Amino acid sequence: MSSLLEGVRVIELSHVMAAPTCGLMLSDMGADVIKVERLPNGDDIRKLAPFVEGVSSPFVMMNRNKRGIAIDLKSSEGQAVLKDLIKDADILIENYRQGAVEAFGVGYEEVKQFNERLIYCSISGFGRTGPYSSKGGFDLVAQGMSGLMSVTGEGADRPPVKVGAPVTDITAGVLGAMGILGALFKRGKTGKGQLVDTSLFEAGIMHTFWQSSIYFGSGEIPKAMGSAHPLMAPYQAFKTKDGWINVGSANQGLWEKLLIVLGAEKLLKEEKFSDPNRRLENLSELEELLTDFFGVEKTEVWIEKLEAAGIPAGPVLNIEEMSLDPQTIARRMVREVSNHGEPFKVIGHPVKYSDYDTKIELSAPKLGEHSRDIMAELGYTEKKINLLLEKGSVYGGEKE
Length: 400
What we know:
Layout: E1 9-13, H1 18-28, E2 32-38, E3 51-52, E4 55-56, H2 57-63, E5 67-71, H3 76-87, E6 91-94, H4 100-103, H5 108-114, E7 119-124, H6 139-145, H7 167-190, E8 195-199, H8 200-206, H9 209-218, E9 235-239, E10 244-248, H10 252-262, H11 276-281, H12 283-294, H13 299-308, E11 313-315, H14 319-324, H15 326-330, E12 334-339, E13 342-347, H16 371-377, H17 382-391, E14 394-395
């Protein structure tokens, strides 16, 4: 089967996580993604442990399925190579601090002069406009400023807690891919590309849909509630005899079924737990009561009982347990690539297509691994390629 983005070439001028996530989504869909790394050291993620045979596992996770070229972006020769890469590309993704790509000679206003079909995706900390446009972008900072950290953690009287995963980085990458695909569709009608501009800040704000709706509708500022939900109860994690279980009794019918499963029918007569709003008002007391019931059996027992009653529930798994779960395996969310003979496990593509099976075959490139091949595809002669490599304008991976 042909791929979804067959024939689409993407130049990923990236580092760390947001833009690499964006490129990853597109490469899984079949685009030819060329990762451009700056010399002398390439992407900083290459330095992050754990290492397998000297190769960073986090780097492989974020950059499998891509080809790589390493360029001295401060040199005029290197910038010329970068422009040649962009001339016939369909998409450019970048996540450098404002002013950096302009210094490399490939800001949006410049490149659209020689490639009007180019879709230029810029992923930054706060977006390319507004008073914070020049600020650097870090997931921790974005989680705090987006309001996300204010609603994450054990409670309002506890220290602020960030979401364990770098959700603004990852979400910004996915939003970038979404924007690119929309612009690609539009280009099919107009023949012209455009700028796609998103940020970690906006990605974080997106995750506050429920809490923002509460504030906009009532003026009440939501607080951290642990695993509980701001609009319904009980909808949270409870301690069992041997672990934790998430229970989603999100409406009145499920609440009544839950009490029957727990053998706690007496709570049906309690006025303070009679509807969702009252249960939220008395959530602390409700949590304490239900925890006592859940604590008498193991998680597996409760899962069986709750599922039989039609109540949404699931265990709280660690990463190892998640990776071995039969649903994870069935959905092919853990895949394996060969990194020059060494097997690496990576996360699979999160969307399934009826007419296309995503291929995850390539490991992440070594620094400059495909530089020679890519320059040859641009029409460079062997003599010119060797000259660029000798001058250090481009690195060909010979010293790896």
